[in-house]
Amino acid sequence: MRETNFFIKYLKNISNFINSLLEKNLNKLNFKNLTFLFKNNKIILTFVALFVLFISYLLLPTLYNQSYVVKELQANIQKKLEIDLKLSQNLRYNFFPKPHFIITEARVYDEQIEISKIEKLKIFVSVKNLFTPKNIVVKNLIFEKANFNLNKKNYNFFLDLLNNDFKDGSLTIKNSNIFFRNLNQDVLFINKILKMKYYYESKELKNIFYSSNKIFNIPFSTKVFFDENKSKIFSIINLDLMKLKIENELILNDNKKKGKSDFIFNKAKRSFVYEIEKNFFNFKIYDKIEEPSLNYDGKFNFKPFYSTLNGYLDEINLSYIFGKNSIISKLIKTEIFYNKNIDFKLNINADNVYKNENFNNINLNSKIVDGLIDADNTKFEWRNFADFELVETLIFIREGELILDGKLDIKVNNYNKIYKFFLTPKKYRKKINQIDLNFTYNFDKKVAELKDIKIDNKINKNVNKILNNVILKKDDFQNKIYLKNILNKAIKSYAG
Predict the structure, then answer these.
(1) What's the CA gap between 381 and 368, in Å, rounded?
(2) Rounded to an integer, what distance in angstroms lies between the CA atom of residue 252 and that of residue 69?
(3) 327 Cβ neighbours under 8 A, 6+ residues apart
(4) For helices 2-25 and 41-58, what crossing angle results, to 10°?
(5) What distances in angstroms separate CA 355 from CA 81, 108, 314, 360, 477, one per listed residue?
(6) Is the preceding omega at residue 61 within 30 degrees of 0, hence cis?
(7) Among positive and negative, which fits the CA dihedral 459, 461, 463, 467?
(8) In the chain, count of helices (H) and strands (E)?
(9) Angle, to 10 degrees, between the axis of helix 41-58 and the axis of helix 31-39?
(10) Which of 13, 98, 125, 148 can bridge 116 by disulfide, Cβ–Cβ 3.0-4.6 Å?
């Protein structure tokens, strides 16, 4: 041991001597001085000897007993991260660019149950104390190509890692996957980790967890950290594809957790308050908490997975729901809802449609069951002229475009007012009580295909031919003129 300590002191003294020489003479160096140095064999030999000595020191771990090194590294990591980690004996050592060990295959356990298999583990160690395996200090860790299997019992695994001390090193996870499963081991969804990193931010004096991910093919990033007392968790989620940012604050409590989120979407801000208790997740959404004109409430039951969302609005903006760039439209196009494990019901009531005074008393219904999405029993009124109802519907993706297919039942309450609205000549104003039709609507192209049109249970071929292909414009005023013209054409054909 004395010889080892003497050797370390010797290396330190040489290092201090070299630094002292450099500080004194670096500014004095010129071409002539450099030529002298290169010609001076003693100086060159000294540097070569020091370089060889340093490389020899870095290569010391290659001489150690492999099993003993694995044992020490495993104990060091378990202490550092407070996880149950088992390392294989497939060990390699490299000193470039920094001293590190590479272990092929490692496993993480939770209560003796394997929750992760890591294909490659890189363990970066301090350049100091390489003389014995027992003195090696683990600095940075990199997990590569790991698969994590989490469920209700251990879903906090990644959050718990944030409680460790990262002042002297970081943890990085690359090209990995998180499989969220129910207690029957069925996969609910997969979160792909592009890069996840735990580190200590010296300016903010706290641990930070940053992750770049993909879920249902939607890229997003997350930043998470605790407050000083670790009684609150703060997180920031960015979904650049949807131009959505979520700032969240969660108050921790053993029995019930309460939180608040702010959703910032295209400069519009929504506030979201929620409670988490056992198997339930309850929430409310407001545009303004003080004087809300928009609000939703919902409930998620995780055992079994079942959810409902109810909402009330003064007016509903359909472009926010089904527009080409809306969040819901993009989510549906990712096909994330085509999952038999999802059971979801939506009910939104609104007095009016945004920028359309003709439609009111909207009752938007939708559900997801066995991987199928429909809008059955959605109802709305056209002033007091007619009542509309969607039945036997299906929402799906065709060639990357959002499609709604189904039947439309129209109960005519006042056909005279309808004719007056369309400025239909009086000689064509034939009495109508009921209209039924099948339709297919393309939300991206704004094209409606109407077929099997029945007026009072009778099919008129000419009416079907005229209304078979309805193409809506971007401008609302153009749409009004276009619809009046095409519907009057169909009315005249029906009246004969």
Answers:
(1) 25
(2) 40
(3) 242, 244, 265, 320
(4) 130
(5) 56, 56, 12, 11, 11
(6) no
(7) positive
(8) 10, 26
(9) 70
(10) 148
59, amino acid identity: L
Residue 185, helix vs strand vs coil: coil
Contacts of 321 (CB under 8 A, 6+ apart): 328, 329, 364
Considering just the CA atoms, what is the radius of gyration of the chain in Å? 34
Both tokens of 182, joined, read 């129910």
Q: Which residues contact 390 (CB under 8 A, 6 or more apart)?
A: 375, 376, 377, 378, 379, 406, 407, 408
Give one DSSP letter per residue of 328-397, joined into a string. Answer: HHHHHHTTTT--TT--EEEEEEEEEETTEEEEEEEEEEEEEETTEEE-TT-EEEETTTEEEEEEEEEEEE
Beta bridge partners of 247: 236, 262
Residues facing 141 on adjacent strands: 123, 171
Amino acid at 260: K
Instruction: Output the six-digit token pair for 179.
Output: 């499989």
CA–CA dist 486, 467 (Å, integer)? 7
- The tens-digit pLDDT sequence of the chain (496 residues) is 444 444 445 445 554 554 554 455 445 545 555 555 555 555 566 666 666 666 665 666 666 777 888 888 899 899 889 899 999 988 888 887 888 889 999 999 998 889 999 999 999 988 777 766 777 888 999 999 999 999 878 888 998 999 998 988 999 999 999 998 876 777 878 899 999 999 999 888 899 999 999 987 889 999 999 988 888 899 999 988 778 889 999 887 766 788 888 888 777 777 888 888 777 778 787 766 544 555 677 776 665 566 777 877 778 877 777 776 676 777 777 777 777 777 788 888 888 888 788 889 999 998 988 778 899 999 999 988 999 999 999 999 888 888 999 999 999 999 999 999 989 999 999 999 999 999 999 888 888 888 999 999 999 888 999 888 777 665 565 677 888 888 889 888 888 7
